[in-house]
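Hello,

Our lab assistant flagged a job as stuck in the queue for most of the afternoon. It eventually completed. Since we weren't sure the result was trustworthy after the delay, we are filing this so someone can double-check. Below is the sequence as submitted and the structure that was eventually returned. Let us know if re-running is recommended.
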Amino acid sequence: MIGGARTVAGATAVLVALSVAVWLTVASSDEARVAVLAVGVLGALGVGVAVVWQPALGPALGALAGAYAILLVVDDPPLDGRAAGVATALVAIGELVGWSRELTSATRDEPGNAWRRPVWIASVGIASLVVTAGLLAIVDLARLDGLVIEVVGAAAALVVLVALVRLARPAP
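-- returned structure --
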């Protein structure tokens, strides 16, 4: 069963990478479409190689991110939620490849451990989506001017200062 789970995890990583490449290609303009597709498919192929040879994972994820970068440079779209989706997909791909590589070892999981890693991958993916979407919202707010933004910025600075003071206190 370990070989089957390893194959499923690796194939899922490649499928997610191909989905990102297709998604970005569909979202791009005619000018960027060929380059986005070529770099995205190169990244997906790299993910397939990384399932067997771990050092290929970094360049593969970089190529997928490069496909998004090409879309941004050529099309110059406004700030949108695609960045959060791409970041989440990259995290999920990395985790799936790592899990696939872990399943090649001869060690057996403890009973009941079979669902912990998929739950971890889903949790990390959701967390990266929330963090990235939050950062995009903050960046979008930063483009605005006015008193409300100044108050939000001052409140954020106060929260950071309070957290630093609490962390600096010696433990009782």
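-- support follow-up --
The delay was a queue issue, not a problem with the job. The result is valid. The CA atoms of residues 94 and 148 lie 39 Å apart. The first helix runs from residue 2 to 27.
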